[in-house]
Amino acid sequence: MADTPDEPDYSGLEEGEAQQAVDIVQAVVARYTEQIAAERRASLPDTERIAQLTADRTAAYADLQRLEEASPEEEDRLAELYTARLRRLES
Questions:
Q1: Which phi-psi region, left, alpha or beta, contains residue 86 (left: φ > 0; alpha: ψ -120 to 50)?
Q2: What is the mean pLDDT of the chain?
Q3: If you ran DSSP here, which 8-state letter would residue 70 be given?
Q4: What DSSP designation does 2 have?
Q5: CA triplet 25, 19, 78: central angle to 5 degrees?
Q6: Would 72 disulfide with which of 16, 33, 49, 58, CB 3.0-4.6 Å?
Q7: Cβ atoms < 10 Å from Cβ of 89
């Protein structure tokens, strides 16, 4: 169950639900994109933070590609990893 009504609830993932895993990773990519844009608009952009966010976003895109042929176990692993990452990004 989600902590708040506005927070997505990914706790009910079952083995093989690839679309939910894709949705979670895409949500993380979107958060990275938002944070990169915000950092670039800052009066003093942190170039190291932009570089790290960009690298993280690139890795997330690679994981999206990996999900296309992932086993159910890999889908679950990535869904758990990105659910935790999304919660961290939203806190």
A1: alpha
A2: 86
A3: -
A4: -
A5: 40
A6: 16
A7: 17
pTM of the model: 0.77
Phi, psi of 35 (to 5 degrees): -70, -35
Q: How far apart are CA 80 and CA 86, in angstroms?
A: 10
- Three-state SS for 71? coil
DSSP per residue, 3-52: SSTTS---TT--TT-HHHHHHHHHHHHHHHHHHHHHHHHSSS--HHHHHH
Q: What is the pLDDT of residues 32-46, one digit of tens each?
A: 999 999 999 999 999
At 90, list the tokens.
Answer: 């939203």
For helices 18-41 and 47-67, the axis angle rounded to 10 degrees is 160
> What residue type is assigned to position 13 of the chain?
L
